[in-house]
Specification:
The chain is mainly β. It has strands spanning 4-12, 15-26, 41-43, 49-53, 58-62, 68-72, 85-90, 96-100, 105-109, 115-119, 132-137, 143-147, 152-156, 162-166, 168-169, 172-173, 177-182, 188-192, 197-201, 207-211, 224-229, 235-239, 244-248, 254-258, 271-277, 280-285, 290-298, 310-312. It is globular and about 45 Å long.
């Protein structure tokens, strides 16, 4: 397997952190291990990577190093079939939850793809959807869905019983929410994509705050698509237009960013989904039809800032 490592140094206030590009997997196509405009990612309790392979109307899953393990899904409207799967999450008990965007429903499966159940239909009522995108599951098993074209987040029990919805807070209204994740403290972080910001809530949908605005400055966005909150309480955000990953404290203080536009695996062309486990980030570059992953480090000497080192093995 081709393997390239690139060290990218980034400023984190008074300390220095770096990200090392490790490898990638995938490539455009219809075969196993290939993707067509894949969107969001999830990590199972065992560390395997689950990918919503959107244009191919299927889910694929891989080892942490990107070795193909299995896949399921065909195009259609029957239970277990997909029309544009976008969001994906894995619960602590091993259920794989998928947003089936064009069918306006949520379905859930075993880790190997056996269909368990689902809920939802087209509409704007409670428990209905209009192009659901990102999905996340909290420690209680409750399922949070970015109901994109209804400009809200809805949440449900693990089996799909409706609990509530939230639309924003004082002076804040969600507009085309897409990515969503749950922080270790249980708060819900949402890519408020058309408002160029991240909005966060408590588990019951109470508005807590937001950060970001339109632009190209470090604390701004032009197309925030994916968000994940790491075990280190760092909020990572993919900006599809700027072709970068930016990261922040839980309350939105800018920490750092990385990303260089280009068609190579260590560059970013269309980042959407992002997940974090320990010191590793996986990024779904949908425009290039692959998943790239990076390891993070701290304590890099300031003299290494701006240097780029690469090797092949």
């Amino acid at each position: 397997m081709r393997r390239i490592a690139l060290i990218i140094a980034v400023s984190m206030g008074l300390c220095i952190a770096s990200f090392a590009y490790v490898d990638y997997f995938g490539g455009e196509g219809y075969g196993q291990g290939q993707f067509k405009y894949q969107d969001y990612l999830a990590i199972s309790p065992g560390g395997n990577i689950y990918v919503a392979d959107t244009y191919n109307n299927r889910v694929q899953y891989f080892t942490p190093e990107g070795d193909f393990l299995g896949m399921w899904g065909t195009t259609g409207t029957n239970p277990g079939q997909f029309r544009w799967p976008e969001g994906i999450a894995v619960s602590s008990i091993g259920n794989v939850i998928v947003t089936d965007a064009d069918n306006n429903r949520i379905m859930y499966f075993t880790l190997s793809g056996s269909y368990i159940g689902g809920w939802g239909s087209a509409g704007s009522g409670s428990g209905q959807f209009n192009s659901p995108r990102g999905v996340a599951v909290n420690s209680r098993g409750n399922v949070y869905v970015a109901d994109c074209s209804n400009d809200r987040v809805q949440y449900f029990t693990a089996s799909g019983s409706y609990l509530d919805a939230f639309y924003g807070g004082p002076g804040v209204t969600l507009n085309n929410p897409k990515g969503i994740d749950i922080a270790p403290n249980g708060n819900v972080y949402v890519c408020d994509t058309a408002n160029y910001r991240i909005v966060y809530f408590n588990a019951n949908g109470y508005y807590l705050g937001n950060f970001g605005s339109y632009g190209i400055q470090p604390n701004q966005f032009k197309d925030a698509r994916g968000v994940c909150v790491g075990e280190n309480n760092v909020v990572y955000v993919t900006d599809y237009y700027l072709k970068r990953v930016k990261y922040f404290s839980l309350t939105g203080s800018f920490i750092g960013m990385f990303g260089q536009s280009g068609p190579l695996p260590w560059q970013l062309s269309g980042p959407v989904g992002i997940v974090s486990i320990t010191n590793r980030l996986y990024i779904s570059d949908c425009s290039q039809s692959w998943i790239s992953y990076y390891d993070s480090f701290t304590g890099v000497e300031p003299s290494s800032l701006g240097k780029l080192r690469s090797f092949y093995h």
